[in-house]
């Protein structure tokens, strides 16, 4: 009978130790997740705000004035410069949206160029590289 009691005590102590280990692991995981969250918040705040050191350097060192160049050279540079092409990617049309009703079922059969023309007529901005499904979603959203 004593062997049965010893076995029960050993099994109970093993269960108690395992439960403690699982609790410890859960506590460590929670601490690690909190640290990761605070670290990601810090990194996000650093990426959105420019460092103050660079702002001070810009004030101390004035930018040199650009020299006038020939028109042929400036045209070739504007084609190679990606920064200038950002303005060209989004087409914004001024004016009130038209009040014409568009048949949603008929839109599936139209080409991307025709969909872009419809968006232009309605005064809805879209990207020049937008695919047909994106254009369809824009048109369905206003219908």
Short overview:
The chain has 143 residues and is mainly α.
List the helices and strands and how they pair.
Elements: H1 2-48, H2 52-60, H3 71-80, H4 82-89, E1 90-91, H5 104-107, H6 112-122, E2 126-127, H7 132-142
Antiparallel strand pairs: 1-2
Helix pairs in contact: 6-7
Proportion of residues in helical segments: 55-70%
The counted number of beta strands is: 2
Ends distance: 82 Å
Tally of helical segments: 7
Give the oligomeric state: single chain
Strand ordering within the main sheet: 1-2
> Which structural class matches the secondary elements?
mainly alpha
Chain-averaged pLDDT? 75
Shape: elongated
N-to-C order of helices and strands: HHHHEHHEH
Main β sheet profile: 2 strands, antiparallel
- Unreliable stretches (pLDDT < 50, length at least 5) are none
Our estimate of the beta-strand percent is under 5%
Q: What's the alpha carbon Rg, rounded to whole Å?
A: 32 Å
Count of spatially separate domains: 2
Descriptors:
3% strand; mainly alpha; elongated; two-stranded antiparallel sheet; 70% helix; 2 domains; 2 strands; 143 residues
């Amino acid at each position: 009978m004593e062997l049965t009691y010893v076995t029960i005590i050993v099994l109970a102590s093993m269960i108690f130790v395992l439960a403690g280990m699982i609790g410890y692991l859960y506590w460590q995981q929670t601490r690690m997740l909190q640290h990761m969250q605070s670290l990601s918040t810090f990194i996000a705040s650093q990426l959105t705000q420019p460092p103050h050191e660079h702002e001070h350097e810009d004030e101390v060192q004035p930018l040199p004035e650009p020299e006038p160049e020939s028109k042929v050279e400036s045209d070739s540079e504007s084609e190679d410069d990606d920064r200038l092409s950002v303005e060209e990617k989004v087409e914004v049309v001024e004016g009130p949206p038209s009040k014409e009703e568009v048949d949603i079922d008929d839109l599936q059969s139209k080409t991307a160029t025709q969909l872009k023309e419809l968006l232009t007529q309605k005064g809805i901005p879209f990207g020049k590289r937008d695919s047909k499904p994106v254009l369809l979603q824009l048109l369905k959203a206003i219908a």
